[in-house]
Amino acid sequence: MVIAHLDPLAASLFSLMTIVSLLLAFVMLGSRWLDNYLYAFAGESWVIAGLSASVGYYAGYPELYLIAILTALFRGLLLPYLLWRIIKRLEVSRELHEILRPSTALVVGALAVVFSLVVAYRIGGELGLAGTVAVLALTVMLSMKLIGFLMLTVRHEAISQILGLLVLENGIFLGAQILVPGMPLLIELVILFDLLIVVACFGVLVQYLMSQIGSTSSFELRRLVG
């Protein structure tokens, strides 16, 4: 595995980018304001784009340069812009329905990181990758997936749930760049375009909620039961 034989500079750079991505996920988890979600997600996407380009350079995968450019354009610019337009059109600025307060959600997120770290160390030990950046990448990947699931669970604003799903997918994408950098380019492209479809579908859902229920909270869908 190429990632197990990186020079210290590359390993430090990859580690820094993965940690910054995780911190930006915590920014989303600990905020109620939708604008903060967008800024953090856009920043996280740009960091992941930089990570893709760095992996392509140090590991010798030139196709990752294209993935980095598409990631920056689609995840870092287009998706935040589309979500920003939805937010402005609906005049929704903050999360109104939440099961956990942001401070409590941050504590749960920290516990998720500890759990992910334990799992990553166990897997890294079994694969002989202990002490490499692969363990950190696996930790951050699992942590971001759990944080994404947590946002989907404790936030009921439709925009929050879209971003929770995008954070979850960002975690998978980040881990893939380090753990399996040779993943076929076609798969990467399909994932990027699937995100556009997801946002478009959620946009339709949000419009339906506003027209039929008068709220953008998916919590109101309980009225359809029975």
UniProtKB/TrEMBL annotation:
Compartment annotation: Cell membrane
Record bears the keyword Chloroplast: no
InterPro entries: HyfE-like (IPR038730)
Source domain of life: Bacteria
Keyword vocabulary terms for this entry: Cell membrane, Membrane, Transmembrane, Transmembrane helix
Transmembrane parts of this sequence: 12-30, 37-58, 64-84, 105-123, 129-150, 162-180, 186-209
Topology versus the membrane: Multi-pass membrane protein
PANTHER family (alphabetical): HYDROGENASE-4 COMPONENT E
Protein name in UniProt: Hydrogenase
Taxonomic path: Bacteria, Pseudomonadati, Pseudomonadota, Alphaproteobacteria, Hyphomicrobiales
